[in-house]
Amino acid sequence: MSIHNVPEIAEGVYWVGSKDWNRKIFDSLIPLHQGTSYNSYLVKGKERIALIDTVNPGFEKEFTEKLSQLTDIKNINYLIMNHAEPDHSNAIPLIMEMSNATLITSEKGFKMAQVYYNIPEERIKKVKDNDTIDLGGKTLKFIDAPWLHWPETMFTYLVENGILFSCDFFGAHSAAGLYDSDVDEIISYAKGYFGEIMMPYKNMGKKAIDKIENLGIKMIAPSHGPIYRNPERILEVYRKWTVGETKEKAILAYVSMWSATERMIKTMAETLLSENIDVKIYNLAIADFGSLAADLVDSRAIVLGAPVVLGGMHPVAVYGALLVKALKPPLKYGAVISSYGWGGAAIKQALEILGPTKIEVVGTHEINGPPTPDDHQKVTEIAKQLAGKIKQ
Ligand code: FEO
């Protein structure tokens, strides 16, 4: 058996997760630059032992070896399922088979544990908000925190040590380090993760933060990425992100085949910059959608550049617009510009996609062929209007 690193993050509390350096994409959608981790934690009380979350498929052997370094797996009394998604719960059946543990779930998780993992009802204990379990000198308190990121999610709080086990919430996709202080760019990773995973549920995130504000948390131990020994570092930004606090910043996301749309986007960018608006430009054909998701977290405006091809809006621009709509960013204002060869269609299509969002479209401009000086003038005017709105 290999000897694994199972650091003790507080007295009697061990990290027993896995680091997945090779993972390059999550949800078949978002590229990962530093892999990710699936954090699991073993909590040893004087009388009982609890395991909080498990690991992604493929890491079972390493996981059980790590646990065996700390205890006989048969001695685990409770297995806490903070979230039913397989990256945290896929090893639940294995641990249940190797022990007589009781699975602890939220009310909604009760059914999911049966459906996803075939855990018999009699081995599951449902917990409600503020319910506790005493491990002997260590008290686990359960906090309802639904929709972060599925309906059944909950937090587990280790009262005596002030550790919040928050599963996906406060996470980051990075396999690096154990603690936040080990990863230089941690807040940037956390921001991309928030944009991809939590932004659509930010209202639920705000409620969860309000609920935990007065707990006196000393450490936040999520199930992806590093553990925050300085919880205020992540709480401070989450307070802003969950209420949709935006900056004087615009995303210019476009596709271009023969540069007509791109030239208008550049005019738009120059004008916005001259108005002191922060500008982030994404050519959607080659863009990193993780970076785009991160910038959506605090941008106030978006400009979509979408040419016409094959009788409609360019499919990559359609994808970009649909992604923006799905992630529910706090964008307030927008504009759409387009170029076509022999028939316009993209503006109408873009407005249909963005219609259900709360984005106020300040202006549109659709041209036939390459932009003329008049077109650049028109784009400049739209950019100035947009800048005015952004600065309001
Ligand atoms: Fe990391 Fe929603 O699972």
UniProtKB/TrEMBL annotation:
Pfam families: ODP. One of its GO terms (molecular function) is hydrolase activity. SUPFAM superfamilies: Flavoproteins, Metallo-hydrolase/oxidoreductase. InterPro entries: Flavodoxin/NO_synth (IPR008254), Flavoprotein-like_sf (IPR029039), Metallo-B-lactamas (IPR001279), ODP_dom (IPR045761), RibonucZ/Hydroxyglut_hydro (IPR036866), Rubredoxin-O_OxRdtase (IPR016440). Residues 250-387 form the Flavodoxin-like domain. Keywords: Hydrolase. In the N-terminal section; belongs to the zinc metallo-hydrolase group 3 family. This is MBL fold hydrolase.
